[in-house]
Amino acid sequence: MKNVVLVLRIAGVYCVLLLVSTASLVAQTDSASTSPPVGFYKDLFMSSGVNLTSRKTLPAAESLGLSYEYYAGKDVEIQNRLMTGGEHDSNGVLLYPDGAPRFRMIYVNGGGATNHGKSLELSGRQTLRQFFNAGGSYCGSCAGSFFSGRNVDVSTQKRLGYLHIYPYNTLNTGLKKERLDHVIPDDSPLLRYRQFGKENRVEGVYHNNGNWMSLEKGAHLENTEVLAVYDTPGKRPDKGAAIWAYKVKAETGRVVNIGSHPEGVKTGDRLSLTEACFLYSLDGTGAVTIKGELVAGETREMLADTTDKTPAFAKIGDGQIHRFSFQVGVGVAKTVIDLSSEVDVQLNLYLSQDLSEITTDELAYRVTREGSNKTMRVRLAPGTWYVAVECASRVQAAKDDSESYYVYDDPQGLLNGVPYRVGLQQRVRSRNSRVIGPVVSVE
After folding, report:
1. Cα-based distances in Å from 285 to 80, 155, 181, 185, 353
2. Fold exhibited by the domain 33-282
3. pTM surpassing 0.85?
4. What is the pLDDT of residues 76-134, one digit of tens each?
5. How far lies 69's CA from each of 94, 277, 279, 326, in Å?
6. β-strands 396-399, 255-258: how paired?
7. How far apart are CA 394 and CA 96, in angstroms?
């Protein structure tokens, strides 16, 4: 009897510990899901605008814990103000003042690709091209997949209204309101993120006038990754690409095109398929770049507006990171970096020899105390070093009364960018302790 009681007590303790552990894990997951992405305002923007499905929730973004916003309405004026900017936001919601992507990725819903593109007008389409070319990734389903391309079927000209960021034609399936099986090839990058059912098959994906890519020899296959193929015996797209990706330059984002409609499903393999597509798209955002080289004894003024078209000297946006390089010579004894702004926001300062991980590198120097003015004095080994300035302040977003888009509370003018200055001074070892630039006091 004593042994039974002992076993029950141990089991009870184990259950309590398991519940505590599970609660802790859930808390950590929830916390991680609400954390803003490093270097961006949010993870994803969903386009559900004019001539597109007016979707307001995105199950895969929810299940992945991605932060996202959307436009889900039919008002051309509102749509284009969001895309290209207005009085209080001259960049539009997708871009920072220097033209860099403000979101990591854009997702475009199904609907009417050509009419949607025309509704954006040239300025809106150019904004989307800028978003992609500057490093933001693109994912689209059905119409969203058509929209990224050059044209359809055998047309030889670029289609007016399309983005042309996927520089090849796609093909019409001619299939309406059907359920099509998708098979994930063994070498598909999607398998890095999710596992699927028997034989890597995703059954019954809804399809309505979507597109596909032929796997017969052609220039389009040289730079296109096939992520999934249709298994539709006796029908036009059989064994053709159902999902494909494109990225040939390190500085651009990645295009992931989905010919069908798995995006509305909340469980099972179809949800996993959308999640894997999103994750591969997000992992394809452009490589980090530097604004320029800091020069000892000089202060670099980052004061330019979007309209000045000088991105190397542009103001910094909400959640954005600007990166700079500088050289440390053999004779340099001390290095001083000074950051200042007249706007009361949270600016963080980082210093490292690792450009890509500068804000997360545990070995990086950092000054992140409250405020916008920072000074860092360090002794550095000779070589190339990098400075990062991060605007940790972000606008507050809320859905408008129609819940079709977001409005921002921005009393500090973050959307149009925060002006700042960053200076470099170096003390050089010599008989006379010569100094290049004034060595300021260190806080």
Report:
1. 24, 30, 29, 23, 22
2. Rossmann fold (3.40.50)
3. yes
4. 999 999 999 988 899 999 999 999 999 999 999 999 999 999 999 999 999 999 999 99
5. 10, 18, 17, 37
6. unpaired
7. 12
The span from the CA of 440 to the CA of 293, in Å, is 20
Distance (Å, rounded) from C-alpha 372 to C-alpha 392? 10
Architecture of domain 292-395+414-436: Sandwich (2.60)
Q: For residue 11, count other CB atoms closer than 10 A to its CB.
A: 10
pLDDT bin (cut points 50, 70, 90) of residue 34 is: low
Element (H, E) at 408: strand 406-409
- In sequence order, the 6+-apart residues with CB closer than 8 A to the CB of 426 are 296, 297, 328, 329, 332, 334, 335, 336, 435, 436, 437
Per-residue pLDDT reduced to its tens digit, 255-277: 999 999 999 999 999 999 999 99
Q: Taking 50 as the threshold, does the pLDDT of residue 64 lie above it?
A: yes
How confident is the model at residue 197, as a pLDDT? 85
What is the distance between the alpha carbons of residues 410 and 382, in angstroms, rounded to a whole number?
42
Q: What's the Cα-to-Cα distance from 270 to each of 180, 206, 277, 279, 330, rounded to whole Å?
A: 11, 10, 11, 14, 58
DSSP code of 160?
T
Burial class (CB in 10 A: 0-12, 13-18, 19+), 436: middle
Question: Cα–chain-centroid distance for residue 127?
Answer: 15
What ranges in 95-167 are assigned the alpha helix state H? 113-133, 143-148
Contact between residue 313 and residue 301 where contact means Cβ atoms under 8 Å apart: yes
Of 213, 206, 178, give the one whose Cα is nearest residue 273: 206
Domain boundaries, the chain: 33-282, 292-395+414-436
Contacts of 49 by beta carbon, 8 Å cutoff, 6+ apart? 71, 72, 73, 74, 79, 116, 119
Candidates 316, 165, 337, 177; CA nearest to 246 is 165
